[in-house]
Amino acid sequence: MNAELKDQIERVCGEVLKKVSIKEGQTILDFGCGEGNYTIPAAKIVGPKGKVYGLDEDGNKLKELEKRAKSAGLQNIETIKTSGELNFEFGNGTFNVVLLYDIFWYFSLGDPKLSELLKEIYRVLKPDGLISVYPEHIETEELKQEIKRSGFHVENRFRGKIIHEGSPEQGQILNFGKKMQDYLVKPIGVVRSNYREASLTLQDQDLKLNREILTRTKTNKGGISELIIKEEYKDCLDGIEDFSHIVVLYWAHRVNDEKRYVAKVHPAGKKEHPLVGIFATRSPARPNPICTTTVQLLERKENVLKVKSLDAIDGSPIIDIKFHHPSYDAPPNVKWPDWMKELVNYFREELK
User: Fold this and answer.
1) How far is CA 146 from CA 11, 111, 140, 142, 248, in A?
2) Distance between CA atoms of 52 and 32, rounded to whole angstroms?
3) Cα 208 to Cα 307: distance, rounded to the nearest angstrom
4) Long-range contact pairs involving 256-265 (C-beta distance under 8 Å, separation at least 24)
5) Strand, helix or coil at 123?
6) Dihedral over alpha carbons 270, 273, 275, 277 (to 10 degrees)
7) Helix or strand or coil: residue 178?
8) Residues 110, 143: Cα–Cα separation, whole Å
9) pTM value?
10) Which domains are present in the chain?
11) Cα-Cα-Cα-Cα dihedral of 61, 65, 66, 71, to 10°?
12) How far apart are the C-alpha atoms of 352 and 349, rounded to whole Å?
C-alpha cells in the first residue's frame, strides 16, 4: 500500500469515527479489526488516556496492526487473537464503543453465533455505550431488527465515504445504543379523597391552574384525604405516627401517554412566565407522572393514614411515603428564578 493511499484511508476512517462520536479518554473494542484501518485512527482520537483493543482471528493481520501502531508511536493499542470464541475476557461495562465493521460475511442472520455476539457486546458495553455497525454482506433491515431484539435501539445513522476491504467507497454506518432497563413500579396503596379533578392539568399543550380546587385542597376549607395502604405493607408504617408531616409520592394516573411527551410549559399555566422544560416544573404531565407533596399527618389507624393538604385526586396510586424533616427537605442557600418567587407570592395571596 502506497503512502498516499494509507494517508487517505486513515483520514477517511478518522472522519467516520468522529461522526460516531469517539472521544478522548474512551475505551474502544474494534471487533474483527484486521490490519487496523479503524484501530489506528481510533487510538489517535482516544489519546494516551484511552485505550483501543483490536480483536481478530488472523494472527498475521494482528502482527501488521502491531507494526503500524509501533511505527505511529501508539502505546494505547492492545491486540487480541481469538479462535472464534465469543466470551470476552472483559468486565461488565468496559467499553464506550464497539466497532462491528465488515464482519457480517462471518455472522449471518439466524446464526446463533450472531445472537451470542450481540449478547456479549451488550454485557461489555457501558450503560451509555454504542455499537457502530457497517452492515455489509447482510440484509440491513433484518440486521437492525436482530440488534434491537438484543437490547439496543438505533441512535443515529449516516452515509458517506467509508473504508471497505482497504478501499474508499460510499457506505452507511448505523449506531446503536443500549436500551435502558425498564423498571416496574408497584403501588403500595391508593388515595381516597373528595377531589375528582386535579388543580393543575395539561390542556392544549400547556398547564392550566384551577384556583378553586387548589384553594380547597391547601387551606382549612378542606383538603382531608386518606391513604389506604395495602395490608402487605402495613408493618412498614410503624413509627410514622411519630412525625407531624410526611412526604407522599403518587402516580398521576390520568396523565395519558400523549401528555407524557410535552417538553415545555408555562409554570402554573401563567403566560407571563417564561416557557420552561417540564423538569423545571411540578407539572404532573411528565415522562413518568410521579408527583410529590408534603402533607400534615393527622392520624394513623392500622393501614390508613389521614392527611391534610394532599393535592392528589381520588384513586391516585401511592408510590411511596417518607417522613418530612426540615434538615432533610429544606437545604440552606436555595436558589430559584424570579418567576418562581412571583408564583410563591401569588399562591400565598390565593391561599389566604
Assistant:
1) 31, 11, 10, 6, 42
2) 13
3) 25
4) 259/202, 259/285, 259/289, 260/285, 260/286, 260/287, 260/288, 260/289, 261/287, 262/202, 262/205, 265/202, 265/205, 265/206, 265/207
5) helix
6) -90
7) strand
8) 10
9) 0.59
10) 3-178 (3.40.50.150), 189-350 (2.40.30.70)
11) 140
12) 5
**Residue given cell 461489555 in the structure block:** 124
CB 287 within 8 A of CB 227: no
Q: Which amino acid is at 208?
A: K
Which of 46, 50, 38, 48 has its CA nearest to residue 10?
Answer: 38
> Cβ(68)–Cβ(35) under 8 Å?
yes
Tell me the pairing of strands 51-56 and 77-81: parallel
Q: What is the rounded distance in angstroms from the CA atom of residue 321 to the CA atom of residue 300? A: 13
Cα 244 to Cα 36, 220, 295, 298, 322: the distances in Å are 66, 17, 9, 7, 12
DSSP label of 312: P
Q: What is the pLDDT of residues 38-80, one digit of tens each?
A: 999 999 999 999 999 999 999 999 999 999 999 999 999 999 9
Residue pLDDT, tens place only, 91-103: 999 999 999 998 8
Q: Do the beta carbons of residue 285 and residue 261 sit within 8 Å? A: no
Tell the residue number behind the cell numbers 488516556, with chain if given.
49
What pairing do the DSSP bridges indicate for beta strands 27-31 and 51-56? Answer: parallel
Instruction: Fill in the amino acid letter for 189.
Output: G
**What cell numbers appear for 236 in the block?**
412498614
Compute CA 318 distance to the chain's CA centroid, rounded to the nearest angstrom: 24
Residue whose C-alpha cell reads 474483527 in the numeric block: 32
